[in-house]
Amino acid sequence: MNAAQHHHDSIIIDGLNASWFLSDSVIERIHRGGTTAVNATIAAWHDPAATLDMIGRMYHQIDRHSEIAQLVRSVDDIHAAKTAGKTGFILRFQDTTPLADKLHLLRVYRALGVRIIQLTYNFENLVGFGCQAPEDRGLTEFGRQVVSEMNRLGILIDLSHCGARTTLEAIDHSEKPVAITHSNAAAQFPHPRNKSDEAIKACAARGGVIGAVSFPAMLTPNLPATLDDYVDTINYLVEVAGIDHVGIGPDLMEEMPAEVVAIVLKGLPVDAVNFMKSIPPVQGFASAADMPNITERLLARGYSAADTQKIMGGNWLRLYAEVWESPSH
User: Per the confidence metrics, is the pTM higher than 0.90?
Assistant: First the structure.
């Protein structure tokens, strides 16, 4: 099988990208990698005013690149992007801080195109607890309201950075499948952000999807990490969750401004911050432009054409359809 042609013909979905999308070259590299749709982080620690500003700036950026980019509000938009040879941008938040304490803002953000929201970043917020919080006491009462309202509106819940208890409680409380867009298995490689097999299985049992993250510090102690290390991670997730519940969620952070990186790493130990800054990217997957290499390696490692398509985008597409297209009122 011609891997390059298979990649070109498939719907490819980047389950999580945290790059600086206001950079023209980032938009161009994502498109060059053949990505049909990307789960694009546009806000995290931002308050409502700053979040609205970022949404507006993202609209402007997509309009400026309308020959290769479009906004995604529905699964039909992803199919349309594929037909047109464009990349669809799915707006998402890495935290619920953009809500402040106002549940009704979820409806506003959905009307503006936001389709995926992670409940917590690394530490505690009004909704629950992140994976770096000293203690995880689970979903708060406001957190349970947020989960229910996201279900009602058809916004996909992401639990990647959530702590262990918050993760399991959110899966249990949600009436719809949830996502773990960018985490790996703690049993394969211990890291605070990697998930227990219990959480991975619980997510899959409810119809959710986990996206394998390519950040080297979450893959292997043997650096530099390689593309085979990344596929090993995908293999393990498939063994635990099943072939219908695994996607890719590389968590690339291309061209992130230094001041933004400082905020991302805020609160982490100094030695951990220095280590993370010094790690070389995955060999063979240093950029979104290298996305075809994953398809090639999955096929080379024995995945069928159909299963490769599931991992590279089909499973995300199914999950998006189930959550976005049937809001409950």
Answer: yes
